[in-house]
Amino acid sequence: MSFFQKALASIGIGSAKVDTVLHQHILSHGNLVEGEIVIKGGNVAQTIDNIYLRLHATYEKESNDRTYTESCVIDSFLVGESLEIGANEQKTIPFSFPLSIYTPFTLGKTKVWISTGLDIKNAIDPSDQDYVEVQPNALVNKLLSAVSELGFQMKQVECKESSYKRNGIPFVQELEYVPVSGSFYGKLDEIELSFLTVDDKLIELVVQVDKKARGLGGLFAEALDLDERFINVTIKDEEKNIIKQQLFNMVQTYS
Protein backbone atom coordinates (compact mmCIF):
# COMPACT_ATOMS: atom_id res chain seq x y z
CA MET A 1 0.00 0.00 0.00
CA SER A 2 1.77 3.15 -1.18
CA PHE A 3 1.83 6.45 0.64
CA PHE A 4 0.35 8.01 -2.52
CA GLN A 5 -2.67 5.65 -2.41
CA LYS A 6 -3.25 6.48 1.27
CA ALA A 7 -3.05 10.19 0.51
CA LEU A 8 -5.63 9.89 -2.29
CA ALA A 9 -7.95 7.85 -0.06
CA SER A 10 -7.74 10.55 2.64
CA ILE A 11 -9.31 13.05 0.24
CA GLY A 12 -11.93 10.58 -0.98
CA ILE A 13 -10.23 9.35 -4.17
CA GLY A 14 -10.12 5.57 -4.21
CA SER A 15 -11.66 5.39 -0.74
CA ALA A 16 -14.42 3.03 0.45
CA LYS A 17 -17.97 3.76 -0.70
CA VAL A 18 -21.34 3.05 0.90
CA ASP A 19 -24.74 2.36 -0.64
CA THR A 20 -27.88 1.65 1.39
CA VAL A 21 -30.55 -0.49 -0.24
CA LEU A 22 -33.97 -0.18 1.41
CA HIS A 23 -36.39 -3.09 1.10
CA GLN A 24 -39.30 -0.66 0.98
CA HIS A 25 -39.48 3.10 0.30
CA ILE A 26 -43.14 3.51 1.29
CA LEU A 27 -43.66 3.26 5.04
CA SER A 28 -46.29 3.81 7.74
CA HIS A 29 -45.99 4.13 11.50
CA GLY A 30 -45.75 0.70 13.06
CA ASN A 31 -43.52 -0.53 10.21
CA LEU A 32 -39.91 -1.61 10.43
CA VAL A 33 -37.39 0.15 8.21
CA GLU A 34 -35.37 -2.69 6.72
CA GLY A 35 -32.51 -2.94 4.28
CA GLU A 36 -28.84 -3.58 3.71
CA ILE A 37 -25.75 -1.40 3.86
CA VAL A 38 -23.34 -2.30 1.06
CA ILE A 39 -19.75 -1.18 1.66
CA LYS A 40 -17.30 -1.37 -1.25
CA GLY A 41 -13.60 -1.13 -0.51
CA GLY A 42 -11.51 1.30 -2.47
CA ASN A 43 -7.93 1.06 -3.69
CA VAL A 44 -6.54 0.62 -0.17
CA ALA A 45 -7.59 -1.28 2.95
CA GLN A 46 -9.30 0.94 5.53
CA THR A 47 -10.64 0.68 9.07
CA ILE A 48 -14.21 1.87 9.58
CA ASP A 49 -14.72 3.05 13.16
CA ASN A 50 -18.52 3.43 13.08
CA ILE A 51 -21.41 2.71 10.74
CA TYR A 52 -24.55 4.69 11.49
CA LEU A 53 -28.03 5.42 10.13
CA ARG A 54 -29.94 8.64 10.77
CA LEU A 55 -33.59 9.46 10.09
CA HIS A 56 -34.13 13.08 8.96
CA ALA A 57 -37.13 15.32 8.21
CA THR A 58 -37.66 18.87 6.99
CA TYR A 59 -39.72 21.57 8.71
CA GLU A 60 -40.48 25.26 8.29
CA LYS A 61 -38.80 27.81 10.54
CA GLU A 62 -39.45 31.55 10.84
CA SER A 63 -36.79 34.15 11.58
CA ASN A 64 -36.70 37.91 10.91
CA ASP A 65 -40.04 37.74 9.06
CA ARG A 66 -38.66 35.04 6.76
CA THR A 67 -39.74 31.42 6.45
CA TYR A 68 -37.16 28.89 5.41
CA THR A 69 -36.73 25.12 5.40
CA GLU A 70 -34.62 23.43 8.06
CA SER A 71 -33.92 19.75 8.69
CA CYS A 72 -33.35 17.77 11.86
CA VAL A 73 -32.38 14.27 12.93
CA ILE A 74 -35.39 12.44 14.33
CA ASP A 75 -33.61 9.22 15.25
CA SER A 76 -30.15 7.67 14.88
CA PHE A 77 -28.78 4.13 15.07
CA LEU A 78 -25.27 2.74 15.44
CA VAL A 79 -25.18 -0.27 13.11
CA GLY A 80 -21.58 -1.43 13.52
CA GLU A 81 -18.18 -0.61 14.93
CA SER A 82 -14.53 -1.27 14.05
CA LEU A 83 -14.88 -2.96 10.68
CA GLU A 84 -11.95 -3.71 8.36
CA ILE A 85 -12.64 -3.37 4.64
CA GLY A 86 -9.95 -4.57 2.28
CA ALA A 87 -9.03 -3.11 -1.09
CA ASN A 88 -11.85 -3.86 -3.59
CA GLU A 89 -13.65 -5.97 -0.96
CA GLN A 90 -17.43 -5.80 -0.58
CA LYS A 91 -19.36 -6.33 2.65
CA THR A 92 -23.11 -6.30 3.22
CA ILE A 93 -24.65 -5.45 6.60
CA PRO A 94 -28.40 -6.03 7.14
CA PHE A 95 -30.36 -3.68 9.41
CA SER A 96 -33.86 -3.03 10.71
CA PHE A 97 -35.33 -0.43 13.04
CA PRO A 98 -38.86 0.76 13.91
CA LEU A 99 -40.05 3.95 12.23
CA SER A 100 -39.99 6.60 14.96
CA ILE A 101 -43.34 7.67 16.43
CA TYR A 102 -42.20 11.28 15.83
CA THR A 103 -41.75 10.85 12.07
CA PRO A 104 -44.00 13.23 10.08
CA PHE A 105 -46.06 12.19 7.09
CA THR A 106 -44.55 13.15 3.75
CA LEU A 107 -47.49 15.43 2.94
CA GLY A 108 -47.14 18.93 1.54
CA LYS A 109 -43.50 20.01 1.35
CA THR A 110 -42.27 17.64 4.07
CA LYS A 111 -39.43 15.32 3.11
CA VAL A 112 -38.11 12.35 5.08
CA TRP A 113 -34.90 10.47 4.36
CA ILE A 114 -32.37 8.06 5.81
CA SER A 115 -28.68 8.90 5.70
CA THR A 116 -25.90 6.35 6.07
CA GLY A 117 -22.41 7.29 7.18
CA LEU A 118 -19.07 5.61 7.68
CA ASP A 119 -16.53 7.07 10.12
CA ILE A 120 -13.05 6.48 8.68
CA LYS A 121 -10.10 8.01 10.47
CA ASN A 122 -7.86 10.27 8.34
CA ALA A 123 -10.30 10.14 5.41
CA ILE A 124 -13.39 11.88 4.09
CA ASP A 125 -16.34 9.97 5.56
CA PRO A 126 -18.41 8.26 2.82
CA SER A 127 -22.17 8.82 3.03
CA ASP A 128 -25.41 7.98 1.27
CA GLN A 129 -29.03 9.16 1.56
CA ASP A 130 -32.34 7.58 0.59
CA TYR A 131 -35.70 9.34 0.58
CA VAL A 132 -38.80 7.52 1.85
CA GLU A 133 -42.53 8.16 1.64
CA VAL A 134 -44.34 8.09 5.00
CA GLN A 135 -48.08 7.48 4.59
CA PRO A 136 -50.84 7.58 7.21
CA ASN A 137 -51.47 4.13 8.69
CA ALA A 138 -54.90 2.52 9.13
CA LEU A 139 -55.64 4.27 12.45
CA VAL A 140 -54.68 7.72 11.12
CA ASN A 141 -56.68 7.14 7.94
CA LYS A 142 -59.70 6.33 10.11
CA LEU A 143 -59.28 9.69 11.87
CA LEU A 144 -58.81 11.64 8.63
CA SER A 145 -61.85 9.94 7.08
CA ALA A 146 -63.91 10.98 10.11
CA VAL A 147 -62.78 14.59 9.69
CA SER A 148 -63.85 14.53 6.02
CA GLU A 149 -67.20 12.89 6.84
CA LEU A 150 -67.93 15.73 9.28
CA GLY A 151 -67.72 18.19 6.38
CA PHE A 152 -64.10 19.37 6.63
CA GLN A 153 -61.71 19.70 3.71
CA MET A 154 -57.93 19.70 4.02
CA LYS A 155 -56.48 23.13 3.28
CA GLN A 156 -52.76 22.64 3.92
CA VAL A 157 -50.17 20.53 5.73
CA GLU A 158 -47.08 21.99 7.37
CA CYS A 159 -44.29 20.91 9.66
CA LYS A 160 -43.70 24.04 11.72
CA GLU A 161 -41.16 24.93 14.37
CA SER A 162 -42.63 24.56 17.83
CA SER A 163 -41.57 25.63 21.30
CA TYR A 164 -43.07 22.36 22.53
CA LYS A 165 -40.33 19.80 21.89
CA ARG A 166 -41.02 16.09 22.00
CA ASN A 167 -37.88 14.03 22.48
CA GLY A 168 -35.88 17.00 21.21
CA ILE A 169 -37.87 17.22 17.95
CA PRO A 170 -38.19 20.97 17.17
CA PHE A 171 -41.38 20.85 15.08
CA VAL A 172 -44.99 19.70 15.01
CA GLN A 173 -46.86 18.59 11.91
CA GLU A 174 -50.16 20.45 11.45
CA LEU A 175 -53.02 19.41 9.17
CA GLU A 176 -55.36 22.35 8.62
CA TYR A 177 -59.01 21.77 7.68
CA VAL A 178 -61.83 24.18 6.78
CA PRO A 179 -65.56 23.34 7.01
CA VAL A 180 -67.22 23.15 3.59
CA SER A 181 -70.46 21.39 4.60
CA GLY A 182 -72.17 19.73 7.55
CA SER A 183 -72.90 20.88 11.10
CA PHE A 184 -69.85 23.11 11.49
CA TYR A 185 -70.11 25.03 8.23
CA GLY A 186 -70.56 28.71 9.11
CA LYS A 187 -69.70 28.07 12.78
CA LEU A 188 -65.96 27.46 12.57
CA ASP A 189 -63.14 29.03 10.59
CA GLU A 190 -61.03 25.89 10.73
CA ILE A 191 -59.69 23.03 12.82
CA GLU A 192 -56.05 21.97 13.00
CA LEU A 193 -54.72 18.54 13.86
CA SER A 194 -51.21 18.70 15.34
CA PHE A 195 -49.72 15.22 15.56
CA LEU A 196 -47.45 14.60 18.54
CA THR A 197 -46.83 10.85 18.31
CA VAL A 198 -48.17 8.24 15.91
CA ASP A 199 -48.11 4.46 16.13
CA ASP A 200 -50.32 1.73 14.70
CA LYS A 201 -52.04 1.30 18.08
CA LEU A 202 -52.21 4.88 19.41
CA ILE A 203 -52.23 8.51 18.24
CA GLU A 204 -51.53 11.55 20.40
CA LEU A 205 -52.48 14.89 18.92
CA VAL A 206 -53.72 18.38 19.72
CA VAL A 207 -56.94 19.53 18.03
CA GLN A 208 -57.25 23.30 17.64
CA VAL A 209 -60.81 24.57 17.12
CA ASP A 210 -61.01 28.09 15.66
CA LYS A 211 -64.49 29.59 16.01
CA LYS A 212 -65.90 31.98 13.44
CA ALA A 213 -66.11 35.59 14.66
CA ARG A 214 -69.64 36.82 15.41
CA GLY A 215 -70.34 40.47 16.17
CA LEU A 216 -67.99 43.01 17.71
CA GLY A 217 -67.17 40.77 20.68
CA GLY A 218 -66.27 37.96 18.33
CA LEU A 219 -63.97 40.21 16.34
CA PHE A 220 -62.14 41.25 19.51
CA ALA A 221 -61.87 37.61 20.59
CA GLU A 222 -60.48 36.66 17.18
CA ALA A 223 -57.92 39.48 17.33
CA LEU A 224 -56.74 38.23 20.72
CA ASP A 225 -56.91 34.55 19.69
CA LEU A 226 -59.53 34.00 22.39
CA ASP A 227 -61.70 32.21 19.84
CA GLU A 228 -59.23 29.31 19.66
CA ARG A 229 -59.46 26.19 21.80
CA PHE A 230 -56.75 23.54 22.12
CA ILE A 231 -57.75 20.01 23.09
CA ASN A 232 -55.30 17.19 23.86
CA VAL A 233 -56.59 13.99 22.31
CA THR A 234 -55.46 10.36 22.55
CA ILE A 235 -56.96 7.86 20.12
CA LYS A 236 -56.48 4.12 20.66
CA ASP A 237 -56.89 1.39 18.08
CA GLU A 238 -59.79 -0.18 19.99
CA GLU A 239 -61.68 3.13 19.66
CA LYS A 240 -61.34 3.39 15.87
CA ASN A 241 -65.02 2.60 15.21
CA ILE A 242 -66.24 5.51 17.36
CA ILE A 243 -63.69 8.13 16.24
CA LYS A 244 -66.25 10.06 14.16
CA GLN A 245 -68.73 10.38 17.04
CA GLN A 246 -66.01 11.29 19.54
CA LEU A 247 -64.62 13.94 17.19
CA PHE A 248 -68.08 15.39 16.56
CA ASN A 249 -68.84 15.61 20.30
CA MET A 250 -65.51 17.26 21.05
CA VAL A 251 -65.70 19.85 18.28
CA GLN A 252 -69.37 20.54 19.09
CA THR A 253 -68.44 21.25 22.73
CA TYR A 254 -65.84 23.87 21.79
CA SER A 255 -67.53 25.42 18.74
UniProtKB/TrEMBL annotation:
It holds the Pfam family Spo0M. InterPro entries: Spore_0_M. This is Sporulation protein SpoOM. It comes from Niallia nealsonii.
